[in-house]
């Protein structure tokens, strides 16, 4: 088959393609019991990734991934996902794209100031994740150690959700290792008064001894390295999707950083992250939520049922659900839905939505009918009602991204999917965003269906997993004999 491995479902028609990442496929395999999980705390984020995968298959004509998984396991992954297009990372200029992403990520300077992540990149990430992580000085063996914590009351719903996000972030370090990467965990540490934290640092106003400090908790450099890797992968897949003229559909944690990166890249208004979070938090979307011009993005919101839960309810098993997924995506409602979304994409690309014409009204009504029909037919009922997830498409009408490598000459004898046949067409950039905190709440509300969906998960007993610690917001700035603020 040469350099490329593509599935056999391509036709000569124009198709929409979602570019996903290997972290998503690994999350799916953990849910299917084909790969071990590191912790029970990470299961729910993987279930969100599982729903991502399902929705990408249902609403895109093709799902693609860059085939840069662990070399010894790549063939097994191809066999596990025959429905996915696997793209050679050494082809199509992607090595240059990866080098560009490495250079950009290397410029990130992590900083923790007064217990908070203070560099712009990670501030924006936690704002979009709606999660709060802090550092405090905690006593251990009679000296203070800087410790990473979730800012929430222990045992609360917020603690469980933030802890799941933190565990998923730590899990990224394993992904970096699988990719053969070592991330240098450099981080600048500054106390609340602006003083650098050095080897002989003493905790101000300490209530224990003279405030002597020891090494920082090992969780902090590991967490920082994980955040840098998230940034690296989000940047790489953003650039790769723009390069390949595909939509990006990434692992949930990475989606949040991606939105920060493209906001910087396209120079969105400074309030963009807040506006995006607000849009996700609305009680019910208008399906095409906002249309902006003058360089701002288009936000298209669609409320959908939890298809993976419906499939699990019908099949009783996540593995059977994956097989059933390939059948139901050929049913008339999904074929029609993809046709409507294809038309919406075309409207994005020719920028006609920005003109406020009748096409916008027509597409708004069509997408509303699609989402309403899906909610009626494929929803599940739980004790807490009918769970709904919100999918946000963030589209920028500016064609392409500057600085990408030229598309190389391609051997025309090699069969190419449609999204690679039209590489020189100038189109905008489209990325999927979903609020992982909201989706975690939805997953947690599934009750017995949650157990059905996670029934095949296997926890690796040999792996030492991160166990989130809590910092009660009421006492964050307080001193005690056990801890002091940073």
The best one-word shape is globular
From the alpha-carbon coordinates, what is the Rg to the nearest angstrom?
A: 23 Å
Strand content: 5-15%
In quaternary terms, these chains amount to single chain
Mean pLDDT: 82
Order of helices and strands: EHHEHEHEEHEEHEHEHHEHHHHEHEHHEE
Per DSSP, the total helix count is 16
Helix/strand-derived category reads alpha/beta
Please summarize the sheet with the most strands. Answer: 4 strands, parallel
- Unreliable stretches covering 5 or more consecutive residues: 1-13, 283-295, 404-425
DSSP, total strands: 14
Helix content: 40-55%
Roughly how many Å apart are the termini?
57 Å
Major beta sheet, strand line-up: 3-2-1-9
How do the strands and helices of this protein lay out in sequence?
Layout: E1 17-20, H1 22-31, H2 43-59, E2 62-66, H3 74-80, E3 85-87, H4 94-106, E4 111-113, E5 116-117, H5 120-129, E6 133-140, E7 143-151, H6 157-178, E8 188-190, H7 219-244, E9 247-248, H8 252-265, H9 272-281, E10 298-305, H10 307-315, H11 318-328, H12 332-349, H13 358-378, E11 388-396, H14 418-421, E12 429-433, H15 436-444, H16 448-453, E13 470-471, E14 483-485
Parallel strand pairs: 1-2, 1-9, 2-3, 4-8, 7-13
Antiparallel strand pairs: 4-5, 6-7, 6-14, 10-11, 11-12
Helix pairs in contact: 1-2, 2-15, 4-7, 5-8, 6-7, 6-15, 7-8, 10-11, 12-13
